[in-house]
Amino acid sequence: MDTQKKIVLTGMQPTGLLHLGNFLGAANNWKKMLDQYDCYFFIPNQHAITIPQVPAHLRSATLNCVAQYIACGLDPQRCTIFVQSHIVGHTELAWVLGCLTPLGQLYRMHQFKDKSAKRENIYSGLLYYPVLMAADILLYNADFVPTGEDQRQHVELARDLAERFNATYSPTFTVPAPLIETTGARVMSLKSPEHKMSKSDSADGATIYITDKPETIRKKIISAVTDSENKIASHPERPGIFNLLNIYCAVTGIQLEAAEAKFKDYTGYAAFKEELAEVLIKLLDPIREKYEAIKEDKEYLYAVIRKGNEKVQPIAYKTLSKVYHKVGFLER
Ligand code: ATP
Ligand code: MG
Fold first, then answer.
1. How many angstroms separate the Cα of 48 from the Cα of each of 52, 87, 132?
2. How far is the CA of 216 from the centre of ligand 2 (A)?
3. pLDDT tier at 110 (50, 70, 90 boundaries)?
4. C-beta of residue 232 within 8 angstroms of C-beta of residue 264
């Protein structure tokens, strides 16, 4: 029964097409949780506007994101997919939680420091982002939040706020735990492998998208940055080949040592890169085909979102009215 399962909640910002890192480090792990947990995968479009977006792009990226979740194997029959801005409750709860959040705790967030350092104009939404994320999680009493290491601090804030609210008023929220996947790959850029592969990286050939065609994948892998040592080995100080080997292992499930042994007699990188391109094509082909088949089917995609809304909106209202009552807001 759904009600006995622990609740998992997570999402990816609709800031662009999903890439190999999003798949290997996130969606592929989420897929394995479908039967064990009651899974909520949402599209955090309200988070996306903490960085300026082109409105038409944001709209289409949001719907595309639904299609990409499904194409990655997040079967909407076995999980709940919804769009953050459709649900009344996220921003409302964030306001209440914000009134329990010390400003200093927000200024200390690594992501705020990183993202604000790159911008001239810093808006308060970027600072407030972790409070909204806490609301996303607490609104549904999520038990677990699968996420990358980069989000650990934000989940810590959600835990603090759950505990603070429970102590200030009375027990209300489940204290969520992060599920940080350490075995999943951290995929690095193909052009500057000291940085992670990212949706917002516009460098040509740096990112493999889950929708890339075979010839594009081959081209990007062949031109991926390596070094002049011409030996296939996993030394972190050789980040280019280290990254490619890690990708190979994450896709094939082969251990790093076994992969090194397999390729030890190869001279140069060309043959290895060809093999890597082929395993990636085999991995991504069905995802791209599924995406192509459903991405224009707006009726279907909206039906998936509507089904998600119907499930989560009553839960959000219930939590919100409980919270409003506890903080002393007058009944409507
Ligand atoms: P943006 O550049 O807009 O921040 P992103 O590529 O970092 O986009 P997010 O939407 O921030 O993607 O992250 C979605 C999920 O994918 C998170 O769980 C995050 O930890 C994971 N993820 C993002 N990039 C990588 C990567 N290069 N390798 C492994 N996992 C990743
Ligand atoms: Mg990110």
1. 8, 16, 12
2. 24
3. very high
4. yes
pLDDT in the model for residue 183 = 61
Ligand 2 centre to CA of 252 (Å) is 25
Q: Quick one: which atom of ligand 1 is closest to the CA of 16?
A: 3
Q: What distances in angstroms separate CA 265 from CA 14, 271, 278, one per listed residue?
A: 43, 11, 20
Measured at the CA of 281, the angle between CA 269 and CA 211, to 5 degrees, comes to 120
> For 199, which DSSP code?
T
Residues in contact with ligand 1 (CB, 6 Å cut-off): 12-13, 15, 21-22, 25-26, 147-148, 150, 185-187, 196-200
For residue 219, the model assigns a pLDDT of 98
Q: Is the pLDDT of residue 67 over 80?
A: yes
pLDDT of residue 223: 97
pLDDT at 181 over 80: no
The two structure tokens encoding residue 85? 């801005």
Ligand 1 atom nearest to 18, measured from its CA = 6
Q: Which residues have a Cβ under 8 Å from the Cβ of 131 and sit 6 or more positions away?
A: 94, 97, 98, 101, 106, 157, 161
Closest-CA residue to 48 (of 65, 27, 33, 23): 65
Nearest Cα to Cα of residue 115 among 180, 54, 62, 50: 50
Indicate the average pLDDT of the chain: 95
By three-state DSSP, how is residue 196 classified? strand
